[in-house]
């Protein structure tokens, strides 16, 4: 029997991206300039049409000046992440 991990919460991930961008009052164009990512990529990420790569999220963490865990941690919002106490 194979035990699969829970599905990541991609909605929470896109909401985190939108929250960080809106908190700084950045447009997609401004975030594109700060991150080096295409405006269309950012729109697709924030609207849930793309998942992005580790490189994408790494660039966003640097643009927002936050630990990557602040961005990607929301993937586990609906379950206990691996290695967490009590898991």
Automatic annotation (TrEMBL):
InterPro entries, per the entry: Cro/C1-type_HTH (IPR001387), Lambda_DNA-bd_dom_sf (IPR010982)
SMART domains the UniProt entry points to: HTH_XRE
Any Pfam family matching the protein: HTH_31
Cross-referenced PROSITE patterns: HTH_CROC1 (PS50943)
Annotated HTH cro/C1-type domain residues: 17-71
Domain of life according to the entry: Bacteria
UniProt protein name: Helix-turn-helix transcriptional regulator
Organism: Streptomyces asiaticus subsp. ignotus
């Amino acid at each position: 029997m194979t035990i699969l991990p829970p599905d990541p919460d991609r909605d929470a991930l896109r909401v985190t991206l939108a929250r960080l961008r809106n908190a700084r009052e950045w447009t997609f164009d401004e975030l594109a300039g700060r991150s080096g990512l295409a405006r269309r990529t950012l729109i697709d990420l924030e609207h849930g049409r793309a998942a992005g790569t580790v490189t994408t999220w790494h660039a966003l963490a640097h643009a927002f000046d936050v630990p990557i865990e602040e961005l990607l941690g929301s993937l586990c919002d609906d379950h206990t992440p691996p290695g967490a106490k009590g898991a």
